[in-house]
Amino acid sequence: MVSIVIIGSGNVAQHLISAFLQSDEIELVQVFSRQKESVSHLISSDKIVSDFAEIKQADLYLIAVSDNAIADVSTKLPFENRLVVHTSGSMPMEILDSKNRQGVFYPLQTFTKNKPVNFKEIPICLEAEVEKDFKTIETVAKTISSVVQSISSEQRKALHVAAVFVCNFVNHLYKIGNEICEENQLSFELLKPLIIETAQKIIHLSPENAQTGPAKRNDSETINTHLNFLSDENQKEIYKLLTKSIIDDGKKL
Amino acid sequence: MVSIVIIGSGNVAQHLISAFLQSDEIELVQVFSRQKESVSHLISSDKIVSDFAEIKQADLYLIAVSDNAIADVSTKLPFENRLVVHTSGSMPMEILDSKNRQGVFYPLQTFTKNKPVNFKEIPICLEAEVEKDFKTIETVAKTISSVVQSISSEQRKALHVAAVFVCNFVNHLYKIGNEICEENQLSFELLKPLIIETAQKIIHLSPENAQTGPAKRNDSETINTHLNFLSDENQKEIYKLLTKSIIDDGKKL
């Protein structure tokens, strides 16, 4: 049994609370939250604290707050030489105050409020200063996920940049698709099966082999038709740059 | 019962052949293919022809060939005043030789060889010169799909451009994510759950509301860390342009 205190009440914190509550091997001791009501639907109110002085003893303190608050929160913890980890993809482990033993517990997923996720499939990337602490967070990670990996701070940074491309930037392209539909009295619903299939394709096919479209075929006639069609300068610039990038890939082969 | 001849043997043609063979309301009369062997695993060889003169009478001739071959193929058909449609997203209906009655039968999906698709969910966008012909292709479309829409050539062009953004360009971002993983000894498998969740999110959430990440938060510290991390100039340029586009969206709100 590993005892845990979660510090934070945002999306990641809430999904971790739900996941830990379902595990028999984890005792969720407390949740630290400035606004008690933001987690009161998940855990009984006597376990929610909003004063650092009230935080109890536990094997693991898990800081799930926004990136720029991690350092500050870790400094405010009123104890020393305990295991404190953060859940951020972009922050190095060393951002945590060195008065405690540092680690990282990074679930690689995009979390939406009120949308349940299947934690079993979510990769959890771990890092710890001390081997014994790594074992502790590995035990915790394995109770909720079947994909648990040791990832250095440098690798985690790479992974986070890659995640920005395949998640944040991809979603922005969905947004542009939606805009083009709206401007032409078309329902965005029409594009959804294509969006899902495009994502599912790369489960079994490398993105390189899955590439299709006018840029891949270097079909300059269709590309020019599309560029003439687009009136928004920003959309046009994105179309040009990504088309050029796909064409350049073809030349490398 | 609608009788159909399919002209072509590529991805779209093969998926349509499979779908039509499963329908009781469609009689697949023939498939025209230069290489008989490319469709011989789908349909009996006596129904495959490679000489235009051998094409039989049918209610509907469906040209599923590459965009730049459509006009030429439609000219070579040795008959007149019959219903001939193409399956392209980017070509206007009028590209078809006007000696026959024109139409468009555009299934909006990315087709992969040997990967079955569920046609029921694939939107089919229809257009026809004549009302009676529209009814015919609508009957055919409804036997294989539950999402059938009348879409003008101009709207279809918009839809095709939007599809390039949400499919071709999105896949290219997956490819860049894969590259970044490989360069840092990380498995691309780690990103797959994120890719699937990012796509599934927009089924219930608008892409605008689903947007997350450093650009959405205008988190210049993380953005600069990422730009310093990226060494490939092309990746850097794409990162900058898409980040700027997301930040500019935020300013519009």
Automatic annotation (TrEMBL), chains A, B:
<dbReference type="InterPro" id="IPR018931">
    <property type="entry name" value="DUF2520"/>
</dbReference>
<feature type="domain" description="DUF2520">
    <location>
        <begin position="122"/>
        <end position="246"/>
    </location>
</feature>
<dbReference type="Pfam" id="PF10728">
    <property type="entry name" value="DUF2520"/>
</dbReference>
<dbReference type="InterPro" id="IPR036291">
    <property type="entry name" value="NAD(P)-bd_dom_sf"/>
</dbReference>
<feature type="domain" description="Pyrroline-5-carboxylate reductase catalytic N-terminal">
    <location>
        <begin position="4"/>
        <end position="86"/>
    </location>
</feature>
<dbReference type="InterPro" id="IPR008927">
    <property type="entry name" value="6-PGluconate_DH-like_C_sf"/>
</dbReference>
<protein>
    <submittedName>
        <fullName>F420-dependent NADP oxidoreductase</fullName>
    </submittedName>
</protein>
<dbReference type="InterPro" id="IPR037108">
    <property type="entry name" value="TM1727-like_C_sf"/>
</dbReference>
<dbReference type="Pfam" id="PF03807">
    <property type="entry name" value="F420_oxidored"/>
</dbReference>
<dbReference type="InterPro" id="IPR028939">
    <property type="entry name" value="P5C_Rdtase_cat_N"/>
</dbReference>
